[in-house]
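In response to reviewer comment 3 from the previous cycle, which asked for concrete evidence that the modeling workflow produces usable outputs, we include below a single protein chain processed end to end. The sequence was submitted unchanged, and the resulting structure tokens are shown without manual editing.
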Amino acid sequence: MIEKGYDMMNIKLPLAATALLLATPALAETHGMEGFSAEVQSNEDITGSVTVTEETSGVFVVTVDLEGVPEGVHGIHLHETGDCSADDYSSAGGHLADGREHGVKVEGGPHPGDLPNATVGADGVLSVTHFNTFLTTEMMADEDGTGFIVHSDPDDYESQPSGDAGSRIACAVLVEPQS
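The workflow returned the following structure tokens.
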């Protein structure tokens, strides 16, 4: 359609393409801010990494990419201490709680460190991404740091204080990004 001597189709497409090109650097700058990260250690040959990143919205994104995890459902949590020195990873302490109760099925829950269970297939790959609105940078970067734990069993989302998720089979010490 031609209006007042202009071909509107020929104008709209170049304008849309120009707008997209101009917006692309801005989109890249706001996505994927630097976050806490760690390589996982395990006595059971589990390998991989975990990252916790605060996005522009203030929501934290927890990304877990592991291999060698036993098939089944596993509780995964952020723990109050960044220490994996004990053979059973008990040195990571309890869940990162910030005064809240454990589990989404209880009043006053969940802990900021509570994450949904992860289901692992026969290939041993645990790959999940979760949004977390309860975390803060101050909580993650306190003087004793933050740990990440993979448990042998699923979290029941209600038992106190830790969801009856079984033994700790992998651990990571989340390291604050360096400026």
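Residues 36-174 form a domain with the Immunoglobulin-like fold (CATH 2.60.40.200). We consider this sufficient to address the reviewer's concern, and the full set will be provided in the supplementary archive.
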